[in-house]
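To: structure subgroup
Subject: Chain for Friday's discussion

All,

I'm putting the inputs and outputs inline so they're searchable in the archive.
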Amino acid sequence: MQKTAGIHHISAMVNDAQKNIDFYASILGLRMVKKTINFDRPEVYHLYFGNEAGTPGTVITFFPWEKQLKGRIGTGQVGVTSYVIPHGTSEFWKNRLHRHGVKVESVIRFDENYLQFVDPDGLQIELVERKDGPINNWAIGDINPSVAIKGFGGATLNSAQPSKTAEVLENILGLKYVGEDAGYLRFSTEAQIGNVIDIKLTPSVRGLMGAGTVHHIAWRARDMEELQQWRLSLLEKGYYPTEIKDRNYFKALYFHEEGGILFEIATDGPGFAVDEPVSNLGKKLMLPEWLEEKREELTAALPNVNVRILEEEKE
C-alpha cells in the first residue's frame, strides 16, 4: 500500500499581504521562500513560507487579497495548523509572541502541551515541542536555529464526517491510527515533521471559505510515478481527482474527501530552487514562463511588500 510521508504544504487565504509577511516571516521567523502569483488569478500574490530551503513538510502558502470576504472556520476545513519547535523552547516562544501582542493559550492533547494563538486574519496556529525533526537553519532577528520552528507538527481536520475522513487517511494515504483523546482521533506517519494529524470529533459550524481559513492541505508524493499511482487508486475507489497540474515547484492533483476537506497530493520535487538559487529564495517576484511577458503589468498591480524586522509592542 502506498503511504504518504505526511503534509507537503498547507494553503490559506488572507487579506493583507504585508501583514501576512510580518506575522509569518518577522514574528514566527519562517523564511519567505517564494514570492509568486496565483497561477489562476495572477493579480493575487501566492506567498510561500517554510524552513531555509522550503522543504516539504515545512511550507505554508497564502493567497492574500484585500477584497476577499471574511471566512469562517468550521467543518470541511483544516481547523488548526501545528508547528514543531525544538525541545525546551516554549518559554521563548510564549515570551516572543507576548512581546508582539499575540495572546497565547496552553492546551494539552495526547499528553503534549500546545501553545495556541491566531494570526492577524484569524487562522488558528499552535506550537508544540518535539525532539524529532531536523533543525531549521534560518535566522531572523533574535530567532536562531536553536529556537526556530522546524516545520509542521501536523494539523487538526474539522471533518463533516470524521469516520469517512479517517478512512481516507488510513486506507488511501496510509497513515497509522494512534488513538483517541479528548474528542480527537490521532493518526501519524513515519516522517519526522508534518506527521501528526488529528480529526476533531465534536461537531462545529459549517466552514465558509474566505480570508482567515485554510483552502486546502497537501500530502507528499515522492515523485510523478507515485502521484500517477495515487490518481489511479482514487479513481478506482470512487473519488474524482483532478488531472495532474503543473505548479512549477511540484506536480499536484486535488480531490474532496467525504468530510468536505479539499485534499491535494503533491510531488516533493522539483522544489523551490528550480527557478532561483536557494540563497535568493523569496527576494524576487517569480513568474511562470507564460506570464513573464506581463511582468511589468503584474508588478504594477501587486502591492509592494517585503520582509522586515518588526519592533516589539510596548507593555
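Points worth raising on Friday:
Residues 7-301 form a domain with the 2,3-Dihydroxybiphenyl 1,2-Dioxygenase; domain 1 fold (CATH 3.10.180.10).
Residues 28 and 95 are 12 Å apart (CA to CA).

D.
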